[in-house]
Write a structure and sequence with these properties.
Blueprint (H helix, E strand, L loop, with lengths): L1 E13 L7 E13 L4 E5 L10 H11 L5 H4 L18 H11 L9 E4 L3 H9 L16 E2 H11 L11 H9 L13 H17 L1
Parallel strand pairs: 1-4, 4-5
Antiparallel strand pairs: 1-2, 2-3
């Protein structure tokens, strides 16, 4: 069973009073689309708005709540006070419980996860369950990265039909210019990005 996922997150470093600074990745939201048509979306309540960069605040967090906050529609929201208006999300524990219910696999099949530029997404996803050894039974310890698959597809293209010797970038652009290459809408919304991941995988399998 294939699951396509995306996480929006805050990445940074915490500097304790003593000792070395520690890297952290905190979940903002997660979207998952199953090949059977089911969809899952959740917003965490455990991230700290003030830990986010201005880019993440403007392009990810505020966009999540655009439809939920009528005050934002009036276009006078100060990004420095936006966190006061954020509705409650779910605890990460709640999200994990829902993921156990959502992610299932028929007997005799395997579970496969697909992401796009998914290194951090996968680390964050796994960390919700604990350590890598705490992943639910049947879960793989890796996900399949669609960006790598896209690159492999580009590298496999022959030079025929191109003018001169095409660069890798030429081949990538050729793929993206294809009529059936999926277009991204509502980028940085975790569920929309997960849906796009599924469409990209279908494109790569049929191109």
């Amino acid at each position: 069973m294939n699951y396509y996922f995306d996480c929006e997150f805050i990445e940074g470093f915490h500097k304790p009073l003593f000792g070395k600074r520690r890297h952290h990745i905190d979940l903002i939201s997660i979207g998952i689309v199953c090949e059977d048509g089911r969809r899952y979306y959740a917003i965490s309540k455990e991230y700290n708005f003030n830990d986010a960069s201005d880019w993440v605040k403007e392009n990810v967090i505020i966009q999540i709540y655009r439809e939920q906050l009528t005050v934002f529609k009036q276009q006078f929201m100060d990004i420095k006070t936006f966190h006061k208006y954020i509705p409650d999300g779910k605890t990460n524990e709640q999200i994990v419980g829902e993921l156990y219910q959502f992610i299932s696999c028929p007997k005799g099949h395997t579970v496969d996860f697909y992401g796009y530029y998914s290194d951090y997404d996968w680390v964050l996803f796994c960390s919700l369950f604990g350590t890598m050894m705490d992943l639910p039974k049947g879960f793989p310890m890796y996900c399949k990265d669609l960006k790598q698959m896209l690159d492999d597809k580009a590298e496999s293209l022959t030079n025929e039909g191109f003018v001169g010797i095409p660069s890798f970038e030429n081949k990538i652009n050729f793929l993206k210019a294809a009529v059936n290459y999926p277009k991204q809408n509502n980028e940085h919304n975790a569920l929309a990005d997960a849906e796009w991941n599924m469409q990209l995988h279908k494109f790569l399998k049929t191109f």
